[in-house]
Design brief:
273 residues, alpha/beta, Metallo-beta-lactamase, Chain A
């Protein structure tokens, strides 16, 4: 059994969706679990984190790390229903890229105070260790070194790379490509990675032109990146809330005609590296 796995608890962008036409790919916003040996890392706490939190407690886990790519609502909305926060014997370490306008603690408090919530941040029983970092610097958590890179999406957004046992997983959401060629810095960051989860909210020849400068990319740009970086599989994520199963299946078919092992990720997908 692999000691390095990735599970997608949420693959949607912007806002959660539900309904019959979203059943295949799912409607929860971004939440990804990375398991390396006995350590568990969570990337973003979108609405998919609600089910993940219950699962962590059911497994008897009492601590984990949460790495936020940024603080936009769709990536932290799951904190409100993240069961471990209400457990006094749970420790949650939170890391997020540093902003110049507001601290990480201030951002988190906003989510748990009036007028957005009746539950004060200070009253949460879990033990919290929230620290911001300069994007581009490595993060050392336990015996794992996690690399970071700046992404093009508003202020202070980070991508993450996990390396273990000669294998690598990269997350790049939310991000908008610049120009026709892949960014050389991202190519270096992604070099030889086995799996890259990439923001493919749009399609280059349909809806992207109308959403240029919104901070999101296309599956075509993701495919160009993995080819230039010599990477393995592409897992497209951050599906638009308007993209139903039929649309995502059609885009996945176009992707797989060019890269058969790549996919549009679904809620619940598990990859072993």
């Amino acid at each position: 059994m692999s000691d390095f796995s990735v599970r997608f608890w949420g693959t949607r962008g912007s806002m959660p969706v539900s309904g019959e036409c979203f059943r295949t790919f799912g409607g929860n916003t971004i939440c990804i679990e990375v398991a390396i040996g006995e350590q568990v890392f969570i990337i973003d706490c979108g609405s998919g984190a609600v089910a993940l939190g219950r699962n962590l407690l059911a497994e008897g886990r009492r601590s984990t790390w949460l790495l936020l790519t940024h603080i936009h609502l769709d990536h932290v909305i799951g904190l409100a229903g993240f069961a471990p926060l209400h457990s006094a014997d749970f420790t949650l370490g939170i890391r997020a890229p540093r902003r110049s306008d507001i601290s990480l603690h201030q951002s988190l408090r906003l989510l748990f105070e009036e007028p957005l919530s009746p539950i004060g941040f200070a009253s949460l029983p879990a033990r919290l260790d929230a620290v911001s970092f300069e994007t581009g610097r490595d993060i050392v958590l336990g015996d794992i070194v996690i690399r970071t890179v700046a992404l093009r999406h508003g202020a202070a957004t980070a991508g993450y790379r996990f390396d273990h046992g000669g294998r690598a997983f990269v997350v790049l959401t939310d991000h908008e490509h610049a120009g026709d060629a892949p960014d050389p810095d991202l190519v270096r960051f992604c070099r030889d990675a086995d799996l890259i989860a990439y923001d493919a909210m749009w399609c280059a020849d349909s809806d992207y032109p109308a959403h240029r400068d919104w901070g999101h990319s296309t599956w075509q740009a993701g495919l160009a990146l993995i080819k230039e970086a010599g990477a393995g599989r592409l897992a497209c994520i951050h599906h638009a809330p308007t993209a139903d199963d039929a649309l995502l299946r059609s885009r996945e078919a176009r992707l797989q005609a060019l890269a058969p092992d790549s996919v549009f990720a679904r809620d619940g997908d598990v990859f072993t590296l």
